[in-house]
Structures are given as structure tokens and as C-alpha cells.
Fold this sequence. Notes:
By secondary structure, this protein is α+β, with helices and mostly antiparallel strands. It has a domain at about 295-675: Beta-lactamase (3-Layer(aba) Sandwich), CATH 3.40.710. A hairpin with a 5-residue loop joins strand 2 (about 40) and strand 3 (about 50-60). The termini are far apart. The mean pLDDT is about 90.
Amino acid sequence: xxxxxxxxxxxxxxVHGEDYKREIEKTEDxxxxxxxxxxRMFDRNANVIVDNTPKNAITYTxxxxxxxxxxxxxxxxxxxxxxxxxxxxxRDKQDYWIKENPKLAKAKVSKEERDQLGDKLEGKExxxxxxxxxxxxxxxxxxxxLTEEDLEILAIYVAFNSGxxxxxxxxxxEGVTDEEFASVSxxxxxxxxxxxTTDWDRKYAFGNTLQTILGNVTDTNEGIxxxxxxxxxxxxxxxxxxxxxxxxxxxxxxxLHGQKAKEKNVTDKAGNIxxxxxxxxxxRGKDLVLTIDMELQLAVEEIIEKxxxxxxxxxxxxFLDRAFAVLMDPRTGEVLTMAGKQxxxxxxxxxxxxxxxxxxxxxxxxxxxxxxKGATILTGFQTxxxxxxxxxxxxxxxxKDTPLKGSxxxxxxxxxxxxxxxxxxxVYMFETAIRIGGGRYEYDKPLNLNLKAYDTFRxxxxxxxxxxxTGIDLPSEQIGFKGESSxxxxxxxxxxxxxxxxxxxxxAQYASTIANGGNRIQxxxxxxxxxxxxxxxxxxxxxxxxxxxxxxxxxxDPGWMETVQKGxxxxxxxxxxxxxxxxxxxxxxxxxxxxTAQAFYxxxxxxxxxxxxxxxxxxxxxxAPYNNPEVAIAVIVPYAYTGSSGYPSTNLKxxxxxxxxxxxxxxxxxxxxxxxxxxx
Length: 680
């Protein structure tokens, strides 16, 4: 027997020795990914809009530790940091109580009950049933015996156990003191899996300005939204990675997210880390340079707030709570300002406050009135219904079984397209619409129109950006709503902007299309994507420059667009906008079109009314300079007032002041640049 034993040992050592040695010395390479800060956002003048604020953080990575080992580490860590048990649930407390009181927990289910259950169940099913009974029988008084220290340990354990193996989990990243950070760093060897690192928060340099379109990012507790889990996991994300959930943060997630830092941990057979090697340093997300001019944005927002609050002092403005102004470069589609403000009540304080509502420029739509008449005239030209030399007598129209339909004044005289735009003649548009529909107006007779005229109008309007997506690089863009009825008479309302609804961004693209001579250019908010660099206040090399994109070109005969442009110019020199734009201080030659729409209220107070109250929406579209446009503007003031006309034109005041702000800012910068050149 002894000889056989010696022989067996010889076989083990000599024949299989190397194999067993390799098995003992076997190691495993584990790659751990660490998130990096997101890319920043700048305005067109390199001013930081969105940045990252670094903060201390303590993490835990489970390399295969057992529950017992994790609790032991949690107990050690609890002696070094303070962590509030905010995320500890009732079930967590019950599990911890069972762990700390095994004898009392066992006594919760008697031997007789265990035997009875054993007759029906076995294995894991039996264990689960007994455990569930134990949980049910733990009293509130027993749970209240857990000390603050117990709850802190439990909170840390819950944080350890909230993620997945080999994925760093944030244990604490809010209020980590320098003392805590140093103490944990000094004792890492006693707490396997625990590490100290740097986390970050998004910082908004201009407060709430543009907050609604900059977007939101999840925190480390939220991680990847459940509905997009598969999408992101397939792209090498961890479940607790922070991702953009709305607007720019979501639209440019792939750019802003960056490349993770990766390290290789070599572990032995027992799971102990033998060595650590950096595989990749990682790289912060790329930076976005926006088309927005923040100085102009702030000025326009201040203008909106002033005139909105001034208008609220006037009677019959109870529904007025918002206003929008979009300024765009008609040559490139770059959005210079995207301003929206809403005057609403704070649900917590009960006080009225002015909120950022920039997102409303793309996701809310309104009847805008006569601002669309430039598109109506050009639709008439394209269909052959009218020519630049077509004249109509402006007088109220009487259609059978319908109240009189006319312009704001009963008789504006005989007008051509330019005069119709200058004086905002509804009747001229009605006559044009009737011809487009193949009809003929006769006093007190029904309209016999081809209903294909609806499609004709809407297809034509979409060439300007009305009733269709502008292509802006943001999610959730609304296209507006089409009037539901297909009765012939509503075609007349469609022709004067009182049937379908449009967004402020669509109006800005429409104004730009008129301004540049017929190119509908895609609206965009990102001007450049830049490589990240270490210097916080500087921009890196250009990774990608966003080029202007023409979505469509209007098919126009010579002179057609010039006719509409002339009409727009006369609107501000001698027409419906002359009160706001005719004085000696203007030298930038504006052109534009006013709009007043009879509409229905659909704001936050709508629930208080059986039927939607009637309101007046105000709008303005324009551009400047008339002879070489460099800026286009669209302003909408929904629910401006109720009742008859005669109230201050908030739309014109916002438009005039916003254009003044643009050209004053331009002049100031040119003067500063000239002064700098001369001083050098």
C-alpha cells in the first residue's frame, strides 16, 4: 500500500505536476470600464454654456465577492464615511434583520410548519416558502431595533448590490468630504472592490436660459432608461451609465458620451487581484459649438419678459402666459436665438414666475394669422390663379349661409399682391383661394370648390416650412395640426393662417425662405463638433463642421419672389407694421408681415371651461436688411387678448426690440474689433 501511495504521488508530481501547477497559477483578465465626463457645449462665440463640475466619489466593483464578504466590506466602509439610508427599503431591513438574528429568524417558522411544508415542497421551493414566511412575521418593533449604524451599513450594502458584477457602482458622490475621501483612499487594501474616483455634475453657466432645449442627463442611480436598455447595452454602455434623455443631450449622445477609460485587472483562481494595467485612458466626450449667440439670446429673453409682463397689465389678457421669438440666419439655417418664456405659477411656492420655454418654439403650435399671406400669394402665382398684376376689390364677401367675411377694414380698395400684403387684405387671399379651388365668387351663393385645394395649399406651404418639420437637430419637433373639417369655406381660413397651426420655428424657416429668395434651408442648432482638450475654457480642433443643407428650392418665375419681398418691405414702411418700424433710428431696412388670428385657447386653464374660450394670437415674420438679408425673425404671442382689437401690439414690440438688439450688438462688436485693431 505504501509503495502504491509513493507511485501515485510520483504520477501526480512527475506526470501531471506541470498541469496542476498551471491550474494553481491560472489567472483571469477582467476588463473594467470607467465612465468619463460628457462633452461641453459652447455658443457660437466660444462662451461655455454647459460644463462639468468635478466632485469626489466612492465606488464599489464586485469582483465575485460573496454576500458575507460584501457585508464585511460595508461594515469597514461605514466606519469611514457617512451615508444616509434614503434608498433602504423595508425588504432590505428585513433581510438584514434575518442576517443579524439567525436564531430568532429560524424561530419564526416552527418545526411543525417546516415539516408540513416539507411534505408538499422540496429544495429551493421549500427554502423560498420558509423565507417568505419568516419575512412576513418580522414585526415593525423588531425592525425598529436596527441602529443607525446598522442602517448605514445596510445602505452601503444596498449600494454595493445595486449594480452588476465587474461594473463600478457609485456608493457616494454627494457631499463626500476631503476627510472621507482621504480615509477611504488610505484603507483601500482592507476593502476589496472599493475605490475613490472623480465624478461630475452638469453645470449650466447661464442658469435656466435654454434649459428646456439643452436637455437632461440621468444620474448614476437612474442609469440607462429601461426603454432604451437594449439599445445602449449593444453599444458598450454599462447599465448605470449616465445618458442624455432629452433634446440636445439626447440628440448628440453618441458625440457627448466620450470613450470610456478601461483597465485590466488580473485575478488569481481565488479571485484576488494580482495586478492592474491601464488599457485605455479614455477620452472626455466631444464638445458642441452651438449656433446660438448667448448674448443675443439673453437680450431677446429680457425683451420678451418685459413686454409679456407689460401686456399682462392690460385688461382682457388673463389667458396670456407665453411668447416666443426665433432669430435665424436665412443664408445658413443657423438658429441665433431660440427664446420662449412662460409666465406661470410655481406649484410649490404658489408665486408667479417666468420660466424658460424655449422648447415651445418646436413642440407647440398655433394659428398665426396673416403672417402666412406671403406663402398664399406665391401659391397663387405657382398655380396660375393670380399674377403680380392681378387686382381684386377688397370688400366683404357674402357666401350663402355664412356671415360676412372680410378684412379688418370693410373696404381697402382695389389691390394688387403688393398692396394686399401691405394692408393685410383678407379678401385678396379669399379670392386667390377661390381661384385655386376652381371656384367663382357670387354674392350669397354657395362656394363650389375642388377640395383638392386643401392639398394644394398644404403642399405649397410645406415648401416654405409651414406644417412640416424644419429638420432641426432636436427630437420631439411638432409639425402642427391640420384643421379637421373639409368644408369648402375653411379653405378661405387656411389662406389667411386661421385654420392650420404652425410652430415658431416653422415661421422662422418660412421667413428665411422668403428672405433668401426661395431656398428652404434646414434649421440647425449645432454649428461644429470639436475634439476635447484639457484646457477647460478653450476649444479643441474641429472634428466636424455642420454645413447648410437646402431641403427644397421653390419653383418660381422671375419677379414672383420680388413681388412678395416688396410687399413685406411696404408692410413696415407704410403698412400694418409701420407704427413699430417707421422712425429715424432704424437704418437696417427691415421687411416683414404681421399676423392676427382669431383662435381658441388651449393653455393650462383650458380644463376650467366646457368650451375653449376665443382668443387672439399675434405674430410677426420678417428679415433685415431688406436688400441683403442676414437675419430672419419669427415672433408668436399666443392668447394675447380676448375681445375686440385695439390692444397694444406685443408681437411688434418684441420684433422691433429684438431686431434692434441684433443690429446694436453687431455694431458694438464691430466697433470693439476696430478699436482692438487700432490699438495694436
